[in-house]
Amino acid sequence: MYQPAHDYGSVHIADEVIAIIAGLAATEIEGVKSMTGGFGGGLVELLGKKNLSKGVKVEVGEKEAKIDLYLVIEYGAVIHAVATKVQENVKKAVEGMTGLKVVEVNVFITGIDTHMPKEEEEEEVEEKIEEEEEEEEEGEEGKKEENSKEKKTKKGKKGKKENEEKKDK
Fold it and tell me: Do the beta carbons of residue 126 and residue 134 sit within 8 Å?
């Protein structure tokens, strides 16, 4: 726990508060899908509370802090670039809000999220359905065209036979 000294008394900043600041700063970065935490973090979320320090481990000294972040990155994001931006943003946020000197921000990529947002999944499913319907319609039109060609061919053959029979008489 960090306790800056002042003439008016002391201020105590809990490690949990620093972890929340770091977690929020990390999730602000584009490409970060989520934070990963241990069993306790998942249990807190099941109980209906959002664990804002999930995936963050903080070690705080008297004037310095070391922060470890465990992240899931979106598929397609440039991992090194995202991790660097996370380090910079977390350092800036924690130092700016607490006055602590952040000496380390370690980023651990624990996964890549390959799922599309639900809206995109729904749109993709709708597009596939439309494509299938169009293919079925094209198939039916093709069958109709084939049937009409067959009828024309049969009529043509019938007409030729009739013409040949007339010529023979």
Answer: no
If you ran DSSP here, which 8-state letter would residue 35 be given?
E
Q: Rounded to a whole number, what is the largest CA-CA distance in the chain?
A: 129
The amino acid at residue 103 is: V
> Token pair for residue 30?
């584009």
Residue 50 one-letter amino acid: K
Give me the DSSP letters along 20-53. Answer: HHHHHHHHTSTTEEEE---HHHHHHHHTT---TT
Q: 3: Cβ–Cβ under 8 A, 6 or more apart, which residues? A: 10, 11, 12, 13, 62
Contact 81, 109 (CB under 8 A): no
The SS3 call for residue 83 is helix
Query: Model confidence over 132-159: pLDDT tens digits?
Result: 777 777 776 666 666 666 655 555 555 5
Bridge partner residues of 113 (DSSP): 74
Relative to beta strand 101-113, strand 64-74 is parallel
- Count, residues in the chain: 169
What is the reported pLDDT for 5? 59
Query: What CA–CA distance (Å, rounded) separates 52 from 25?
Result: 11
